[in-house]
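Dear Dr. V.,

Thank you for agreeing to look over these. As mentioned in my earlier message, I'm a first-year student in the group and I'm still getting used to reading structure tokens, so any feedback on how I've presented them would be very welcome. I ran two proteins. I've put each sequence directly above its structure. The first is here:
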Amino acid sequence: MSKLNVAILGLGRVGASIGLALKRAMTQNPKLAFELVGYDSQQSNEKAAQKLGAVTRIERTPYAAVANKDLVVVALPYDETRETYKALREDLRDGVVLVDFSPLKQPVIGWAQQYLKPTHHVIGAAAIINPNLMFDAQDSAENAREDLFDGGAVLLSPALDSVREAIDLAYNFSILLGGKPRFLDPNEHDALMAYTEHLPLLLGATFYDTLQRHSAWEDMQALTSANFAAQTLTLKRDHPDALRDLLLNNRDNALRALSALIDTLQEARAALAADNRDALEALLVRTSDDYAQWINRRFRAEWDKPSVPMPTSAESSGIMTFFLGSKLANRLAGKKDES
């Protein structure tokens, strides 16, 4: 039976979960067939992904993983992504679609234009994960779940010159993962991510730096607890180079987010300094009330609907034919292979 050949570069939580979601899709629809090849720079992630059955096999290099693949998922640590793009030009086949889950979209679009061929099509993507799983922030294959995208969404951020067929393929791929496809401009994506992702990472790192420079740090260490660990998780999970590159490659947006945080911290400090019970309570109550509303909306997924209609099976068949040939296209669209 013909298979759609997929490479997953990066077998952390997102990459391994994508493999598991595609395996689930094949179980639910026997007419779907994927060959899932994985690569990760950390052997622990590779072994865990294999143990979970997230991939069919592991390749030791990204070059071997992407060779002759129809679809490439990029879910690498951010500090590895640029060098990978630089190295893959001659290994990617013409017509391949790369769905890139890197935390910034504008730099990836630039790297694709700089290093890849015009026949290589990159579509930015971001995982809005299952709300039941969002309080688990561990990024490793051991935390992968086939339902990571269920009840969530996949934000697609194509470049202005992306071909429609590549966008539609990424759209259909998102549906197979279990998430609702939505579209977001790459610039807007990066601006919003500065507040919701990069600022918490920077806050965790600087919070720890503040404490470790305190004269009483030796005594504080024994008092650290779950709250402390959750706040500083980025130092365990993410390489410093990745956070450095995220902030510098999104510098203007990060500065705006940091300035907004400083304003709020100064408001809290002023209330404390003035022993102003009412001002401090007002800040905390408005925050708590809005947080409750956010939690409710997040679990109910009360967001805007996708901005384009879901392709029909006929449209999906045409999309796949463009990239994969009629046999594979018919397979993925659920049509009978007459051969």
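The second protein is here, in the same arrangement:
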Amino acid sequence: MKVELLSITSNPEKLIEIAGRTSHLSFNRQGKNSEKNFIKMLIKKGHTSVLEHAYATFNISGVSRVLTHQLVRHRLCSFTQQSQRYVSELNFKYIEPDSIKKNSKAHSLFIKFMEEAKKVYLKLKDLEIINEDARFVLPNAIESQIVVSANFREWRNILELRGNIGAQWEIRKLVIKILKQLKKYAPTAFEDFEIDEEKSIIRKIKVR
């Protein structure tokens, strides 16, 4: 799994402060690092709509279609995904869950099925079946690539939902990688999210 930050709003936390202070025209209260306390106040009071002024775009690759099917349910994001209509999947790679990999019998069945799917796809292509129809035999395990853009408020929503212990394991790993990068550029806006590496989850914490 690879997560590449393609773009992020320049000086995002200062932008959030400027946008937020427009509400009460309190620009005179700006100062060195004033954006940090201002953003903490917004989050504590639940005024997170102001965080929508800042955006981040990620290129995500080496993940399964299982994961991307979950991700595209977040309708406030913008998505551009690798097309199975225009990209040949003759030599597709795939993601194998650890639960299957660690079980020798399950692993054998899984690998056999993936290889069979490749053979059937190839045979369909040899019969001049176009990609958009041949793809009907492709498994959800197949690797995909997707570019995702969202504002900070929506990223916070995704992190909270998909980093939870009840979320699927692969998407939890993804949002942990995303959070680590967001914290580099906007530490205060994501300060109340804590990563538990051992359990591979994200927790919400109280911040002073």
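From my reading of the second output: Residues 75 and 154 are 9 Å apart (CA to CA). The chain has eight helices and six strands. Does that match how you would interpret it?

Kind regards,
E.
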